Amino acid sequence: KSGFVAIIGRPNVGKSTFMNRVLGQKVAIMSDKAQTTRNKVQGVLTTDDAQIIFIDTPGIHKPKHVLGDYMMKVAKNTLREVDAILFMVNVEESIGRGDEFIIEMLKNSKTPVFLVLNKIDLIHPDELISEIEKYKDLLPFAEIVPISALQGNNVETLVNVISGYL
Ligand code: GDP
Ligand code: MG
């Protein structure tokens, strides 16, 4: 099994930290230098049963007028061409304009979208249920997976969930 997975989310939600966690140091260093959506960061994860190519999409959260029509097209094509989309949010923060822009872009997506609630280490476990409630009706998510990219909680589960869709 193999497939392409795009990671999308507003700045500081933990996309690079997640890439780092699953792929190792090198990729995150690249991702900090690459500041345009054109320089997509790709890293390949090989597990026992799958090969997953991750694509970090650092610029896609930006509103249309900032991104420009060309970049908008590039972004949408990227999301169309991948096998799964990880929409990452910071579980500790409320839904912002950057998130709403992404949600709008992902509406009617034929590619399965996984909601990744990151930074669960910063909230009480009881809060997680109400956070999931806030998000679950925004899009028809294929899966909702809470993780801590920093501490590694549930990251392996997320990889297994992704593999299940490839
Ligand atoms: P990006 O802009 O989406 O690529 O976000 P980064 O990966 O650069 O992370 C932004 C900040 O959030 C950094 O200071 C990370 O250490 C921190 N961070 C990322 N994931 C987690 C997490 O699971 N828990 C906590 N507490 N901090 C995190
Ligand atoms: Mg980053």
UniProtKB/TrEMBL annotation:
Domain Era-type G residue range list: 1-166
Location(s), subcellular: Cytoplasm; Cell membrane
Single GO molecular function: GTPase activity
Region named G3: 56-59
Region span, G5: 147-149
UniProt-annotated stretches for the region G4: 118-121
Keywords carried by this UniProt record: Cell membrane, Cytoplasm, GTP-binding, Membrane, Nucleotide-binding, Ribosome biogenesis, RNA-binding, rRNA-binding
Biological processes per GO annotation: ribosomal small subunit assembly
Record's bilayer topology term: Peripheral membrane protein
Chain sites annotated for binding GTP: 9-16, 56-60, 118-121
GO cellular component, one term: plasma membrane
Annotated region (G1), positions in chain: 9-16
Function text: An essential GTPase that binds both GDP and GTP, with rapid nucleotide exchange. Plays a role in 16S rRNA processing and 30S ribosomal subunit biogenesis and possibly also in cell cycle regulation and energy metabolism.
Entry's family note: Belongs to the TRAFAC class TrmE-Era-EngA-EngB-Septin-like GTPase superfamily. Era GTPase family.
Subunit structure: Monomer.
Protein name as annotated: GTPase Era
Residues of the full protein shown: 5 to 170 of 299
